[in-house]
Amino acid sequence: MSARVRITDLKARKRRGEKIAVLTAYDATMAALFERAGIDTLLVGDSVGMTCLGFESTIPVTLDMMVHHTAAVVRGTSKALVIADMPFLSYQVSADEALRHAGRLVQDAGAAAVKLEGGRAVVDTVSRIVDAGIPVMGHLGLLPQSVNQVGGYRKQGTEPGSADAILADAKSLEHAGAFAVVLEMIPAELARTITAELSVPTIGIGAGPDCDGQVLVSHDMLGLFDRFVPSFVKPYANLATVVVDAAGRYAAEVRAGQFPQPEVSSTSRK
Question: Nearest to residue 65, comparing CAs of 81, 42, 88?
């Protein structure tokens, strides 16, 4: 069995100019399939709330939910680096409380690292968690947990002042010890600048081609989730159609008495 990918491997890939492919995963079966396909960095995103649990946003997702799904992903993998999202209000109250919650994702669920949203407002929390030995990935640009505050899922950093603020946030996260930073829905030029100025990897989602890696919500990439698909997503399959077709054919055969077919006797008459 190969050793698991570590955060140091991602940093080495940035130095070598090797792009990093990341997908979200929420269960053991899909995690195992992604790993078999060569995806060795998996994010257990709080997007599970929308893709799997029927919520309208990520905000209702709880720490217990994240522990549950993260543990499943870890059980389904043998090599992948598994990073777990810290859900809404699991890290905003205090740095000490954030450390305890990050500890659950690592100790109880088996994650190798955690991800949290925000810039300079959370650097003390990032430092506290990192100092305790838990790797932290940052997240800037569009912050899904703050969707009510920013007025929806809109591109961020389009004005000079906001672009400068995101760059400053990225540098602050790196200084606080973050091993990577997700850049979501920001202009490609800004993502290029941040990527060039940071020594840690940037992982883009709707942030252009110049980040050190890319991440997509797996249900979007596979064509499984069609309630809301961002414009930057490239669907590599249309599994929703495949699933509906297969389930429909199964139902039709059951109703017609064609499934299951009668068992064939193992003995024959002379």
Answer: 88
Please say if 35 is a catalytic residue. no
Average pLDDT over residues 108-115: 98
Query: What is the DSSP annotation of 129-166?
Result: HHHTT--EEEEEES-GGGHHHHTSS-----SHHHHHHH
Q: What's the Cα-to-Cα distance from 198 to each of 12, 18, 171, 187, 190, rounded to whole Å?
A: 13, 15, 7, 17, 12
Provide the pairing of β-strand 136-141 with 202-205: unpaired
Distance of CA 175 to the CA centre of its chain: 23
Q: Any idea how long the chain is?
A: 270
Q: Which pLDDT does position 1 carry in this prediction?
A: 43
CATH topology classification for 7-255? TIM Barrel (3.20.20)
Kindly tell me if the per-residue pLDDT of 269 is higher than 60. no
165 band by pLDDT with thresholds 50, 70 and 90: very high
Per-residue pLDDT, 264: 73
Q: What percent of the chain has pLDDT over 90?
A: 90
Q: Dihedral of the CA atoms 213, 217, 221, 222 (nearest 10)? A: 140
Residue 67 has pLDDT above 80, yes or no: yes
Extended strands (E) in 1-76: 20-24, 41-44
Catalytic residue among 159, 184, 197, 253: 184
What's the pLDDT band for 267 if we cut at 50, 70, 90?
A: low
Say how far apart CA 267 and CA 88 lie, in whole Å: 63
**Rounded to an integer, what distance in angstroms lies between the CA atom of residue 140 and that of residue 119?**
7
Could you tell me if 21 and 213 are in contact, meaning their C-beta atoms sit under 8 angstroms apart? Answer: yes
